[in-house]
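Progress against Task 2.4 (sequence-to-structure conversion) is shown through the following example record, which the project officer requested during the mid-term review.
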Amino acid sequence: GVASVVPGDFGAAGAGAAYLDAAGVPDLGQGAQTWITCRMTHCFSLGHLMGIPGFGPLARLLVERLRHGGLRDRVNGGWFHAVSDDGAAPDLASGKSAYDHAFVMLAGASATTAGIPGGPELLADATAVYLDKFWDGEYGRPVDTWNADFTKLDPYRGVNATMHTLEAMLAVIDALPEGERAPWRERARGITQFAVGLAADHDGRLPEHFTADWVPDLELNKDRPGDQFKPYGATPGHGFEWARLVLHFEADSANHAAGGATQAADLLPPARALYARAAADSWDVDGAPGFVYTTDWSGQPVVRTRMHWVVCEGIATAHSLFARTGEPRFGEWYGRFWDYAREHLLDLERGSWHHELDEQNRPTATVWPGKPDIYHALQCALIPLLPLTPMLPAALLSHRVAIPGA
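Structure tokens generated for the chain above:
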């Protein structure tokens, strides 16, 4: 179960949470990475809210490391992408990214909601840095990557960081007092409208990469389509993830409107369209079960490896659509995706999930070696147990989730 797997994600003494190898053992050669440390802070906070013993102290320790450890740049501000295992040598070459900093916001919001000491301070620091360095008010979405000292901004803009910014903002809304939420709702609204319009303009597929003025760059990385963070083409898993986040925003907006605020928009049609395109393009399309990782702009498979996170997002989004509509077909898809995960992805011998399978559903490591973290897997297990709003941390405050064996 979840409880037996999560503690193994903690390591990297003095720096942050460890990257796990295929056996579930900390791979200290990977150093400590901000996005993994933040995701595990989020997961430990969720575990604490579920009442699992030991998770609160782990969340507290990671909050302290994010605030005061080697990942935090005390000179120029913000967080490094990674540091060596002992926290002494920061990764300067990767610069500082909106992707990493969105997860710092998520970690701070989750820790705050869970009552973890230091959580509010981390949240305040993270939101301040994000708004100062990454939020582009002109476009209503984030820039992507600075160099390490925040003196040079890369012209690249990306949908992946924008998507995780929306996720973090929804968690921030829940963590803040009601009187401080309105600006974050408006930022989240703008990102949601952008994604919905983008998908409508591209037949339900979402361009991932953009120029500095947000013109889609549809050919980026065509020569290396399996890039970890910038793969070529459309990524159906992000279609699922965006569809779910659109539904989360719609639910928050509807609740807010019920309290006498602005009228909520009906975002079910675009969420349906995003889900339908992602499923049609990627599920069982190349002679073997599972989701292909990426497609070209006509929907033909490009990278045919199967990523665990895509299945997790398919599971979570199918159930979210079932909860929103009550339509049996979404429940059937939910069950079908879980059946696939049980057969191919759950590692019952060593724990956790295989992060990547080849086109014949055998474990491989061409894009994601090892089992870095459990963020997607934990969320897809919890989302079906909770309402669409608030987001998971706040929902767990008011909905007791029973953990078998806990």
